[in-house]
Structure formats: structure tokens, C-alpha cells
User: Fold these one by one.
Assistant:
Number 1:
Amino acid sequence: MANITEKDLRPIATDLASIKTALGIGKWIAGILASAVVTIGIIAFSWCYNIGVKVGRLEQADQQRGTQIVADLKAPKSQQQLQANLTTVTAQIETARAEGKRPDPSKVKPLSSVLSEVVKKNPDMPSAWNAAMQLVNYRFQPTFGNISSLPDCLHIPMTSVRSEVQGPPGPDGIPTHFPVETFPPVVQMKAAMVELKNCRLDLDDNGDFASTNAASALTDAKKRSPATNYLILELNNAFITYKGGKLLPVNEIRFKNCFFEIRPTLDLPDNRRQAITQQLLEAKENEGRIQLPTGM
């Protein structure tokens, strides 16, 4: 075997030194990168935390503003303050609708209750009714887009027609209702009811109601039971509008998962619009009833 000289080992030593240096640089770079990653992580965590804190504070401030406006409406220091608060509420609702914000039940329900009291105490104040109608429209706004594609409720095939009797009011003040077969001895009125769903209904009477499918169904029910003196439309998943004209010749609208649009007015609304607005302010979110002042 040939002897390995220092001359032969020198290139190998040089290569090993280069590898060692490269490894050292790699470790140094890795250390810097690791430190950078940790630093970036800390910065990102701090940023997210700060954003979260700010959002939480904004939400809390928004909730406090909502609580404060309800308190101010409930006990205004003056009529001027009441007017100013009503203007603020109306502007907030219009802004929320323009921005596409969905109503928050935790805020809308207390506001509905207090506005109901405001219009009761101030029935001749146009701004109070305007705020109330704007809130009703916001609270019951549609969750779908193409409303015009829905069929007219009064012209669709009738899915169900039934009769019932109405007895004395219950503990909540709402009249009790019973199927005809089980009516109690004390009867206040006998009703015919038509069930309608997935449609749109205009409460304004354009004079064509008598020619609709709904009217025919109610007429047939009255023929079968001549004592019928109360007409009900029961609607499910319907879009209901009212522009302020003469109302349909029915006594009551029962609704479930329905949407409403009442045409607002800056003037004092008539009794029909007031009655419908008041009842919708006090209605539940998903179901309720409206008694219509028929003949008006």
C-alpha cells in the first residue's frame, strides 16, 4: 500500500473545513429563521389579540348604545329628546338595512317593546309611527331575494279550508279557538279559515278579492256553515305587504315564518296602518296574528 502523505491529506482537510463552515452557517441561518418565526408568531398573536379586544370593545359599546337608546325612549327627559331619539333609531335602522345587516333579536325585541309603548303614549306623533314601521320592516324583512317570483296567495290552489269557533279570551287576553266539533257552550263567533303558504299577499284590497280562489273557498265554507261570521287567512312562509289602502275583507291574518313590508309615511298614518304596526311590534319573531279592522 502506498504511503499517504500530508500533501494527500491537505485537500481532504480543506473539504472537511468547508463542510464544517457550511454547517455552522446553516445552523446560524436556522437559528435566525427560528427566531424570526417565533418573533412573527408573537407579533401575529399580539395583533390577533388586539383585534379581538377591539372587536369585543366595539360590540360591547354597540350593545351599550342599544341599551341606552331603549332606556332613553322609555323615559325621555323631554319631547325634544324623544324626537331626537326617534330620529336616531330610524337612521340606525335605515343604515343597517342599507348595509345588509340582519336584525339581532336581542336588540330588536327590546326596541320593539319600547316603541310599542311610545306609540301608545304618543299616538299623534308621526316620527314615532315612522320609527315603528321602519323597525317592523327591518325585523320581518325577507331572507330570500326574488320576491316577485312568488305566486299570489289569493290565487293559488287552496291546500286546506276548515272551520272553527272562537270562545272567550284566555288569560293572555287572546280569544280561544276550537274546532267546530269540540266547541264549548259559550261561543263568540264562528270562523272559516284558509291555509296558504309559499306565496305573497298584498293586504290592500284592489277590488278583485271576490274573484280569487281564497274568496271562493271562504264563500263555500260559509255556505256549509251559514253562521260563519269571521274569516281567517293562515299564512306560512309568505311575504305580506301593506301600502295603506282599504284592507282585504278578512278579519284575521295568522302567520308563521312570514315577512312583512309596511309602506312608511312621514305623516301620521291612518288607523289601519297604526293597528297593523302596533300588532306586529308586539308579535313574536316567527309566528303571530293580526286582527284587521275590516271595512276600513
Number 2:
Amino acid sequence: MDKTPFSKKCEILTDFSDMYSSSDWAKDYFDFYNLGVPWALGVHRNYLTLNEKGVEYVEQSWKGLLEFFSIDPYAKFDSLDELIEFANE
């Protein structure tokens, strides 16, 4: 089971988007997860509440981010910095 809480996933996806959405190396990720990432941002910033399908899109974006960095999907992260540090090990 995934150990990172949903609210933390939304926070980390938001931070990743804020920092890297204009980076060429991450373009394919943002193009593919063009619903889940913005919805995670909306949840994190308290702009919206998701239904079951919306949660599913955010979860897919989270799994995609972990795959993007080749990280164990069962690891627990508290921040984007921690996730990137883990990826660099």
C-alpha cells in the first residue's frame, strides 16, 4: 500500500509543477498527466474537491511521477526535496 498521504501527494505534485512545468526534460510528463497534476494543484490550494474519478487521476499522476524518477511506489515522502533526494541516491 502507498504510504504517502493523498494531501502530501497533492502538495508534492504542486511543488513539482511550480518548479518544473516549463522544463523541457519534464514536458512529456506534464503533457501526459494534463488532468491529474492541475487537479492536485487545485486540491492543494483549496480551489476544488475531487470526486472518485478526480482522485484516480491524481493517483495516476503520482504513480507517474514516481515512475518518472524510478522510485519505489511504496515509499513515503513528505516533500518534493525528499523525493528528489531519494531519486538521486
Number 3:
Amino acid sequence: MKNIIFIYASILVPIFLSACEETPTDRIKKFESRVAANRLGSSTDYWIVKYNILGNWEKVALVFGFADDRSFCEELLDLYARRHPSERYRCQPAN
């Protein structure tokens, strides 16, 4: 009987504990809200966002730590546009 209880406990406890963990979506939302509330450096940080096949803008990179984050973000967009001319990117303020 003790062996059966031990077996059930060793199976069920990890299942219950994993149900309490944050989902990846929760982690992303928490990260995005932290970025929105906390600027890094002296200029506004910027997201590089990409227009996806579903018709939505999705965040793909965060630009921070430069004297002028927007200018660097625009430079990165120029590089992306040369390599992937059919895709649409833009810079979006993060905070």
C-alpha cells in the first residue's frame, strides 16, 4: 500500500506543481510590462515589430542601451529591408 501511495505521489505532485507555473505567454506579458515601466538609459527604448502573415504586428527585438535608440532601430530596419525586402518592419516605442 505504501508503494502505491509513493508511486501516485511521485506522479501527481509534479503535475500539480507544473499547473502552478507561469505560461510562456504570461512571462512575455510580464516582460513587456517591465520594459514599458522601466526605460534603460537616457533615450526611449524601441521594439522592432514585424507585420506577420496573420495581419498583426509582433514584437521581434528590443533596442536599448544606445545614446539614440530610435536611430539605431532605424539602422537595423534598413538592414532587415535589404535582406528581406518582402517583409515589413517598423520601430515602436517600448516605454
